[in-house]
Amino acid sequence: MTLTELSEFMGRGTSYLMMMHIKDNGLKELNYANRTRYDNNVVLELDVSGNKMNNFFSSIEARLVSLEKLLLQGNNLAYVSGKSFYGPPEMVTVLTKRDYLCCMVPAKIKLCQPSMGSDDLSSCENLLSHFSQKLFIWIVGILAVVGNLLVFIQNHSIRKQKNSLVPIFLINSLALSDLLMAFYLIIIIVADLAFSTGEYGLNSEIWLSSPFCLIACFLVNASSLTTVLLMVTICSDRYICLVYPLSPKRMSIKTARIVVVFVWILSLSFAAAPVISSANMPGYLRLYTYNSMCMANNYQIDYYRVWMISYLSIIFIAWVAMTILYMRLFMTIRRSGKNLRRSTATDNTVIAIRLALILISDLISWVPFYYVNLHGLLTSGRVDVIALQFVGIFSLPINSAINPYLYTFTNIDIIKKFLVRQKTFSTKS
Predict the structure, then answer these.
(1) Are 206 and 68 within one domain?
(2) What is the CATH number of the domain that holds 151?
(3) Name one GO cellular component term (predicted).
(4) What pTM was computed for the model?
Protein backbone atom coordinates (compact mmCIF):
# COMPACT_ATOMS: atom_id res chain seq x y z
CA MET A 1 0.00 0.00 0.00
CA THR A 2 1.38 3.41 -0.99
CA LEU A 3 0.30 6.35 1.15
CA THR A 4 0.36 9.97 0.08
CA GLU A 5 -0.90 11.39 3.36
CA LEU A 6 -0.68 9.94 6.81
CA SER A 7 -4.31 10.91 7.29
CA GLU A 8 -5.27 8.04 4.97
CA PHE A 9 -3.81 5.68 7.53
CA MET A 10 -4.61 7.31 10.86
CA GLY A 11 -7.93 6.51 12.42
CA ARG A 12 -8.20 3.02 10.88
CA GLY A 13 -8.05 1.10 14.12
CA THR A 14 -4.71 2.58 15.11
CA SER A 15 -5.75 3.91 18.50
CA TYR A 16 -3.77 1.25 20.36
CA LEU A 17 -0.58 1.12 18.27
CA MET A 18 2.61 1.73 20.26
CA MET A 19 5.04 1.54 17.32
CA MET A 20 3.99 2.89 13.95
CA HIS A 21 6.34 1.99 11.07
CA ILE A 22 5.34 3.52 7.73
CA LYS A 23 8.74 3.51 6.05
CA ASP A 24 9.30 3.26 2.27
CA ASN A 25 5.67 4.00 1.38
CA GLY A 26 6.03 7.04 -0.85
CA LEU A 27 4.61 9.26 1.89
CA LYS A 28 4.74 12.87 0.70
CA GLU A 29 3.37 14.70 3.70
CA LEU A 30 3.23 14.14 7.43
CA ASN A 31 -0.17 15.60 8.18
CA TYR A 32 -3.54 14.96 9.70
CA ALA A 33 -6.50 15.80 7.52
CA ASN A 34 -9.21 17.85 9.17
CA ARG A 35 -11.55 14.89 8.92
CA THR A 36 -9.39 12.84 11.27
CA ARG A 37 -10.99 12.96 14.67
CA TYR A 38 -8.78 10.57 16.55
CA ASP A 39 -5.88 11.36 18.83
CA ASN A 40 -3.45 8.57 19.56
CA ASN A 41 -2.30 8.44 23.17
CA VAL A 42 -0.07 5.37 23.06
CA VAL A 43 2.23 5.62 19.99
CA LEU A 44 5.78 5.84 21.32
CA GLU A 45 7.72 5.48 18.05
CA LEU A 46 6.88 6.79 14.58
CA ASP A 47 9.08 5.61 11.70
CA VAL A 48 8.45 7.45 8.42
CA SER A 49 11.96 6.97 7.00
CA GLY A 50 12.60 6.27 3.33
CA ASN A 51 9.62 8.27 2.08
CA LYS A 52 9.32 11.30 -0.21
CA MET A 53 8.71 14.06 2.29
CA ASN A 54 10.08 17.46 1.28
CA ASN A 55 8.22 19.55 3.85
CA PHE A 56 8.05 19.30 7.61
CA PHE A 57 5.83 22.15 8.76
CA SER A 58 2.85 20.40 10.31
CA SER A 59 2.31 19.61 13.98
CA ILE A 60 0.99 16.09 13.57
CA GLU A 61 3.02 14.98 16.56
CA ALA A 62 0.81 17.17 18.73
CA ARG A 63 -1.92 14.59 18.10
CA LEU A 64 0.51 11.80 19.05
CA VAL A 65 0.82 13.04 22.60
CA SER A 66 2.96 10.13 23.86
CA LEU A 67 5.42 10.11 20.96
CA GLU A 68 9.02 9.65 22.14
CA LYS A 69 10.96 8.71 19.02
CA LEU A 70 10.63 10.08 15.47
CA LEU A 71 12.60 8.51 12.59
CA LEU A 72 12.95 10.67 9.48
CA GLN A 73 16.00 9.21 7.68
CA GLY A 74 15.83 8.99 3.91
CA ASN A 75 13.53 12.00 3.45
CA ASN A 76 14.70 15.13 1.67
CA LEU A 77 13.11 17.52 4.20
CA ALA A 78 14.09 20.56 2.16
CA TYR A 79 11.75 22.87 4.07
CA VAL A 80 11.60 22.44 7.83
CA SER A 81 9.97 24.33 10.68
CA GLY A 82 11.33 23.90 14.18
CA LYS A 83 7.81 24.39 15.57
CA SER A 84 6.90 20.92 14.31
CA PHE A 85 8.93 19.40 17.14
CA TYR A 86 7.25 21.27 19.99
CA GLY A 87 4.12 19.09 20.04
CA PRO A 88 4.71 15.83 21.95
CA PRO A 89 5.88 16.65 25.48
CA GLU A 90 7.58 13.24 25.81
CA MET A 91 9.57 13.25 22.53
CA VAL A 92 13.29 12.85 23.24
CA THR A 93 14.72 11.31 20.02
CA VAL A 94 14.77 12.58 16.43
CA LEU A 95 16.85 10.76 13.81
CA THR A 96 17.37 12.14 10.31
CA LYS A 97 20.08 12.83 7.73
CA ARG A 98 19.07 16.43 7.10
CA ASP A 99 21.93 18.80 7.96
CA TYR A 100 21.10 21.57 10.44
CA LEU A 101 17.71 20.04 11.34
CA CYS A 102 19.00 19.34 14.84
CA CYS A 103 19.69 23.05 15.22
CA MET A 104 15.92 23.63 14.99
CA VAL A 105 14.65 21.15 17.59
CA PRO A 106 13.86 22.29 21.15
CA ALA A 107 16.18 21.57 24.06
CA LYS A 108 13.91 18.79 25.36
CA ILE A 109 15.14 16.54 22.51
CA LYS A 110 18.00 14.64 24.17
CA LEU A 111 19.18 12.73 21.08
CA CYS A 112 19.14 14.28 17.61
CA GLN A 113 21.19 13.17 14.63
CA PRO A 114 23.05 14.41 12.70
CA SER A 115 24.19 16.79 15.41
CA MET A 116 26.20 19.89 14.57
CA GLY A 117 28.77 19.98 17.35
CA SER A 118 31.76 22.18 18.00
CA ASP A 119 34.00 19.58 16.34
CA ASP A 120 32.41 20.29 12.96
CA LEU A 121 33.50 23.06 10.63
CA SER A 122 30.09 24.71 11.01
CA SER A 123 27.91 24.59 14.10
CA CYS A 124 24.39 25.60 15.06
CA GLU A 125 25.85 28.90 16.25
CA ASN A 126 28.48 29.84 13.66
CA LEU A 127 29.25 29.26 9.99
CA LEU A 128 32.89 28.75 11.02
CA SER A 129 32.83 27.24 14.47
CA HIS A 130 36.48 27.77 15.49
CA PHE A 131 38.66 30.86 15.69
CA SER A 132 41.56 28.92 14.12
CA GLN A 133 39.44 28.32 11.00
CA LYS A 134 38.57 31.99 10.70
CA LEU A 135 42.22 32.99 11.19
CA PHE A 136 43.44 30.46 8.62
CA ILE A 137 40.99 31.70 5.97
CA TRP A 138 41.99 35.31 6.63
CA ILE A 139 45.70 34.46 6.31
CA VAL A 140 45.33 32.32 3.17
CA GLY A 141 42.98 34.86 1.56
CA ILE A 142 45.36 37.76 2.21
CA LEU A 143 48.37 35.74 1.01
CA ALA A 144 46.53 34.79 -2.18
CA VAL A 145 45.51 38.37 -2.98
CA VAL A 146 48.90 39.93 -2.17
CA GLY A 147 50.91 37.16 -3.82
CA ASN A 148 49.03 37.24 -7.10
CA LEU A 149 49.19 41.03 -7.24
CA LEU A 150 52.97 40.74 -6.76
CA VAL A 151 53.07 38.40 -9.76
CA PHE A 152 51.36 41.03 -11.92
CA ILE A 153 53.73 43.75 -10.67
CA GLN A 154 56.87 41.68 -11.22
CA ASN A 155 55.81 40.52 -14.68
CA HIS A 156 54.88 44.07 -15.67
CA SER A 157 58.46 45.17 -14.95
CA ILE A 158 59.99 42.49 -17.20
CA ARG A 159 57.33 42.30 -19.91
CA LYS A 160 59.64 43.90 -22.53
CA GLN A 161 61.94 40.87 -22.59
CA LYS A 162 61.05 39.19 -25.86
CA ASN A 163 62.03 35.68 -24.79
CA SER A 164 59.80 35.95 -21.71
CA LEU A 165 56.54 36.97 -23.38
CA VAL A 166 54.95 33.51 -23.38
CA PRO A 167 55.96 32.52 -19.81
CA ILE A 168 54.84 35.91 -18.47
CA PHE A 169 51.49 35.69 -20.24
CA LEU A 170 50.87 32.16 -18.94
CA ILE A 171 51.88 33.00 -15.38
CA ASN A 172 49.68 36.12 -15.40
CA SER A 173 46.76 33.94 -16.49
CA LEU A 174 47.54 31.53 -13.66
CA ALA A 175 47.64 34.43 -11.19
CA LEU A 176 44.23 35.59 -12.39
CA SER A 177 42.87 32.08 -11.86
CA ASP A 178 44.32 31.96 -8.35
CA LEU A 179 42.68 35.32 -7.62
CA LEU A 180 39.31 33.65 -8.19
CA MET A 181 40.09 31.35 -5.27
CA ALA A 182 41.02 34.40 -3.19
CA PHE A 183 37.64 35.97 -4.04
CA TYR A 184 35.96 32.71 -2.98
CA LEU A 185 37.67 32.91 0.41
CA ILE A 186 36.65 36.56 0.77
CA ILE A 187 32.99 35.61 0.19
CA ILE A 188 33.24 32.91 2.88
CA ILE A 189 34.86 35.40 5.27
CA VAL A 190 32.08 37.96 4.73
CA ALA A 191 29.39 35.26 5.07
CA ASP A 192 30.92 34.13 8.36
CA LEU A 193 30.84 37.69 9.68
CA ALA A 194 27.21 38.07 8.59
CA PHE A 195 25.78 34.72 9.74
CA SER A 196 27.85 33.81 12.80
CA THR A 197 25.40 35.47 15.16
CA GLY A 198 24.68 32.48 17.39
CA GLU A 199 21.83 31.16 15.21
CA TYR A 200 23.53 30.03 12.00
CA GLY A 201 21.75 26.66 12.01
CA LEU A 202 18.35 28.35 12.01
CA ASN A 203 19.37 30.75 9.24
CA SER A 204 21.61 28.40 7.25
CA GLU A 205 19.17 28.11 4.36
CA ILE A 206 19.23 31.90 3.89
CA TRP A 207 22.97 31.69 3.20
CA LEU A 208 22.93 28.43 1.25
CA SER A 209 20.18 29.57 -1.13
CA SER A 210 21.65 33.06 -1.62
CA PRO A 211 23.30 34.22 -4.89
CA PHE A 212 26.56 34.69 -2.97
CA CYS A 213 26.83 30.99 -2.12
CA LEU A 214 26.13 30.15 -5.77
CA ILE A 215 28.86 32.58 -6.84
CA ALA A 216 31.25 31.07 -4.28
CA CYS A 217 30.55 27.58 -5.65
CA PHE A 218 31.20 28.81 -9.18
CA LEU A 219 34.46 30.54 -8.19
CA VAL A 220 35.98 27.58 -6.35
CA ASN A 221 35.16 25.16 -9.18
CA ALA A 222 36.28 27.52 -11.96
CA SER A 223 39.49 28.45 -10.14
CA SER A 224 40.46 24.84 -9.42
CA LEU A 225 39.85 23.66 -12.97
CA THR A 226 41.46 26.68 -14.66
CA THR A 227 44.51 26.56 -12.38
CA VAL A 228 45.23 22.91 -13.10
CA LEU A 229 44.78 23.27 -16.88
CA LEU A 230 46.98 26.38 -16.98
CA MET A 231 49.67 24.63 -14.95
CA VAL A 232 49.66 21.80 -17.50
CA THR A 233 50.03 24.40 -20.25
CA ILE A 234 52.94 26.09 -18.44
CA CYS A 235 54.61 22.75 -17.78
CA SER A 236 54.22 21.72 -21.44
CA ASP A 237 55.77 25.00 -22.59
CA ARG A 238 58.72 24.62 -20.21
CA TYR A 239 59.17 20.99 -21.26
CA ILE A 240 59.39 21.88 -24.97
CA CYS A 241 61.75 24.80 -24.29
CA LEU A 242 64.16 22.76 -22.16
CA VAL A 243 64.04 19.34 -23.80
CA TYR A 244 63.75 20.60 -27.40
CA PRO A 245 65.31 24.09 -27.28
CA LEU A 246 65.76 24.31 -31.06
CA SER A 247 62.34 22.93 -31.96
CA PRO A 248 60.19 25.08 -34.30
CA LYS A 249 57.14 23.87 -32.35
CA ARG A 250 57.84 26.14 -29.38
CA MET A 251 54.74 28.01 -28.26
CA SER A 252 54.35 31.50 -29.73
CA ILE A 253 52.51 34.31 -27.97
CA LYS A 254 49.65 33.93 -30.46
CA THR A 255 49.33 30.21 -29.74
CA ALA A 256 49.54 30.88 -26.00
CA ARG A 257 46.65 33.34 -26.21
CA ILE A 258 44.50 30.87 -28.14
CA VAL A 259 45.22 28.09 -25.63
CA VAL A 260 44.53 30.33 -22.61
CA VAL A 261 41.25 31.64 -24.06
CA PHE A 262 40.15 28.06 -24.75
CA VAL A 263 41.05 27.00 -21.19
CA TRP A 264 39.10 29.90 -19.67
CA ILE A 265 36.01 29.34 -21.84
CA LEU A 266 36.04 25.60 -21.10
CA SER A 267 36.53 26.06 -17.35
CA LEU A 268 34.01 28.87 -16.88
CA SER A 269 31.34 27.08 -18.93
CA PHE A 270 31.92 23.77 -17.19
CA ALA A 271 31.78 25.38 -13.74
CA ALA A 272 28.74 27.53 -14.51
CA ALA A 273 26.39 24.82 -15.84
CA PRO A 274 25.61 22.98 -12.54
CA VAL A 275 25.63 26.22 -10.55
CA ILE A 276 22.92 27.68 -12.79
CA SER A 277 20.92 24.46 -12.30
CA SER A 278 21.22 24.91 -8.53
CA ALA A 279 19.65 28.37 -8.44
CA ASN A 280 16.36 28.57 -6.49
CA MET A 281 16.49 24.84 -5.75
CA PRO A 282 15.97 23.05 -2.42
CA GLY A 283 19.07 21.71 -0.72
CA TYR A 284 18.98 18.16 -2.05
CA LEU A 285 18.75 19.49 -5.63
CA ARG A 286 21.75 21.82 -5.32
CA LEU A 287 25.26 20.96 -6.46
CA TYR A 288 26.59 21.72 -2.97
CA THR A 289 23.49 20.48 -1.04
CA TYR A 290 23.87 21.84 2.54
CA ASN A 291 27.64 22.40 2.45
CA SER A 292 28.26 25.68 4.28
CA MET A 293 31.46 26.21 2.23
CA CYS A 294 29.36 25.97 -0.98
CA MET A 295 31.58 23.18 -2.37
CA ALA A 296 30.24 20.62 -4.85
CA ASN A 297 29.35 17.32 -3.17
CA ASN A 298 26.06 16.05 -4.64
CA TYR A 299 26.43 12.47 -5.87
CA GLN A 300 22.75 11.62 -5.34
CA ILE A 301 21.38 13.41 -8.43
CA ASP A 302 22.44 11.76 -11.71
CA TYR A 303 23.32 15.01 -13.50
CA TYR A 304 25.48 16.24 -10.63
CA ARG A 305 27.09 12.81 -10.21
CA VAL A 306 28.17 12.79 -13.88
CA TRP A 307 29.43 16.36 -13.53
CA MET A 308 31.37 15.57 -10.35
CA ILE A 309 33.02 12.48 -11.84
CA SER A 310 33.89 14.42 -15.01
CA TYR A 311 35.31 17.29 -12.95
CA LEU A 312 37.47 14.98 -10.86
CA SER A 313 38.58 13.02 -13.94
CA ILE A 314 39.68 16.13 -15.84
CA ILE A 315 41.68 17.41 -12.89
CA PHE A 316 43.17 13.97 -12.18
CA ILE A 317 44.26 13.43 -15.80
CA ALA A 318 45.74 16.93 -15.92
CA TRP A 319 47.56 16.36 -12.65
CA VAL A 320 49.00 13.01 -13.84
CA ALA A 321 50.13 14.59 -17.13
CA MET A 322 51.78 17.42 -15.22
CA THR A 323 53.54 15.00 -12.88
CA ILE A 324 54.90 12.95 -15.81
CA LEU A 325 56.20 16.08 -17.52
CA TYR A 326 57.83 17.28 -14.30
CA MET A 327 59.56 13.94 -13.77
CA ARG A 328 60.87 13.91 -17.35
CA LEU A 329 62.11 17.46 -16.88
CA PHE A 330 63.95 16.43 -13.73
CA MET A 331 65.65 13.57 -15.54
CA THR A 332 66.56 15.75 -18.53
CA ILE A 333 68.05 18.45 -16.29
CA ARG A 334 70.01 15.89 -14.29
CA ARG A 335 71.44 14.19 -17.41
CA SER A 336 72.42 17.44 -19.11
CA GLY A 337 73.75 19.25 -16.02
CA LYS A 338 77.22 17.68 -16.11
CA ASN A 339 77.88 18.69 -19.70
CA LEU A 340 76.82 22.32 -19.45
CA ARG A 341 78.72 25.41 -18.49
CA ARG A 342 78.25 26.78 -14.98
CA SER A 343 75.68 29.50 -15.80
CA THR A 344 73.44 27.07 -17.65
CA ALA A 345 73.81 24.51 -14.86
CA THR A 346 72.73 27.18 -12.37
CA ASP A 347 69.66 27.95 -14.48
CA ASN A 348 68.77 24.27 -14.53
CA THR A 349 69.21 24.05 -10.76
CA VAL A 350 66.77 26.93 -10.37
CA ILE A 351 64.26 25.21 -12.65
CA ALA A 352 64.61 21.96 -10.70
CA ILE A 353 63.98 23.78 -7.40
CA ARG A 354 60.92 25.50 -8.81
CA LEU A 355 59.47 22.28 -10.23
CA ALA A 356 60.03 20.40 -6.97
CA LEU A 357 58.27 23.08 -4.93
CA ILE A 358 55.34 23.26 -7.36
CA LEU A 359 54.93 19.47 -7.34
CA ILE A 360 54.94 19.37 -3.52
CA SER A 361 52.35 22.15 -3.27
CA ASP A 362 50.14 20.31 -5.77
CA LEU A 363 50.33 17.12 -3.71
CA ILE A 364 49.42 18.97 -0.51
CA SER A 365 46.45 20.63 -2.19
CA TRP A 366 44.90 17.86 -4.26
CA VAL A 367 45.56 14.51 -2.55
CA PRO A 368 43.16 15.19 0.40
CA PHE A 369 40.49 16.43 -2.02
CA TYR A 370 40.71 13.28 -4.13
CA TYR A 371 40.78 11.01 -1.11
CA VAL A 372 37.59 12.48 0.39
CA ASN A 373 35.70 12.32 -2.92
CA LEU A 374 36.86 8.87 -4.05
CA HIS A 375 36.47 7.31 -0.60
CA GLY A 376 32.92 8.62 -0.31
CA LEU A 377 31.99 7.65 -3.87
CA LEU A 378 33.35 4.10 -3.60
CA THR A 379 32.15 3.28 -0.07
CA SER A 380 28.79 4.98 0.41
CA GLY A 381 28.00 6.77 -2.84
CA ARG A 382 28.08 10.13 -1.08
CA VAL A 383 30.77 12.52 0.14
CA ASP A 384 31.43 13.23 3.80
CA VAL A 385 30.31 16.87 3.87
CA ILE A 386 32.25 17.66 7.05
CA ALA A 387 35.52 16.23 5.68
CA LEU A 388 35.00 18.03 2.36
CA GLN A 389 34.49 21.33 4.17
CA PHE A 390 37.78 20.92 6.01
CA VAL A 391 39.53 20.05 2.74
CA GLY A 392 37.96 23.09 1.09
CA ILE A 393 39.29 25.38 3.78
CA PHE A 394 42.64 23.86 4.73
CA SER A 395 43.80 22.16 1.51
CA LEU A 396 42.54 23.47 -1.84
CA PRO A 397 43.20 27.20 -1.26
CA ILE A 398 46.83 26.51 -0.31
CA ASN A 399 47.71 26.01 -3.96
CA SER A 400 46.36 29.43 -4.92
CA ALA A 401 48.15 31.08 -2.00
CA ILE A 402 51.52 29.38 -2.57
CA ASN A 403 51.68 29.41 -6.39
CA PRO A 404 52.29 33.17 -6.78
CA TYR A 405 55.16 33.11 -4.28
CA LEU A 406 56.70 30.11 -6.01
CA TYR A 407 56.63 31.92 -9.34
CA THR A 408 57.80 35.22 -7.81
CA PHE A 409 60.52 34.15 -5.39
CA THR A 410 61.77 31.22 -7.50
CA ASN A 411 62.45 33.59 -10.35
CA ILE A 412 65.74 32.60 -11.98
CA ASP A 413 67.41 35.97 -11.39
CA ILE A 414 66.52 35.97 -7.69
CA ILE A 415 67.73 32.43 -7.00
CA LYS A 416 70.90 32.90 -9.09
CA LYS A 417 71.81 35.91 -6.95
CA PHE A 418 71.17 33.84 -3.82
CA LEU A 419 73.32 30.95 -5.08
CA VAL A 420 76.14 33.33 -6.07
CA ARG A 421 76.07 34.93 -2.62
CA GLN A 422 76.19 31.51 -0.97
CA LYS A 423 79.23 30.49 -3.05
CA THR A 424 80.95 33.82 -2.33
CA PHE A 425 80.32 33.41 1.39
CA SER A 426 81.67 29.85 1.33
CA THR A 427 84.82 30.97 -0.54
CA LYS A 428 85.53 33.74 1.97
CA SER A 429 85.06 31.34 4.84
Answers:
(1) no
(2) 1.20.1070.10
(3) plasma membrane
(4) 0.81
User: Can you spell out the DSSP letters for 58-120?
Assistant: --GGGTBTT--EEE-TT----EE-GGGGSS-TT--EEE---TTGGGTS-TT--EEES---TTS
Which pLDDT does position 274 carry in this prediction? 95
**Coil, helix or strand at residue 216:** helix
Q: Taking a C-beta distance cutoff of 8 angstroms, is the pair 192, 127 a contact?
A: yes
pLDDT at 278: 93
Helix or strand holding residue 55 (H, E): strand 55-56
Question: Which ranges of the chain have pLDDT less than 50?
Answer: 1-5, 33-38, 414-415, 418-419
Judge contact between 383 and 402, C-beta under 8 A. Answer: no
Distance CA 111, CA 248 (A): 70
In sequence order, what are the beta bridge partners of 45?
A: 19, 69
Mean of pLDDT over the chain: 77
Angle, helices 396-409/131-157, rounded to nearest 10 degrees: 30
The CA distance from 151 to 168, in Å, is: 9
- Please answer whether residues 31 and 7 qualify as being in contact, where contact means their C-beta atoms are separated by less than 8 angstroms: yes
Residue 45 host element (H or E): strand 45-47
Of 144, 179, 171, the C-alpha closest to 155 is 171
Spatial separation of the C-alpha atoms in residues 367 and 370, rounded to whole Å = 5
Tally the domains of the chain.
2
**Which SS3 state, helix, strand or coil, does residue 218 take?**
helix
Task: Indicate the residue among 84, 115, 146 that finishes a domain.
Answer: 115
Q: How far is CA 372 from CA 295, 382, 388, in A?
A: 13, 10, 6
Cα–Cα distance measured from residue 168 to residue 156, given in angstroms and rounded to the nearest whole number: 9
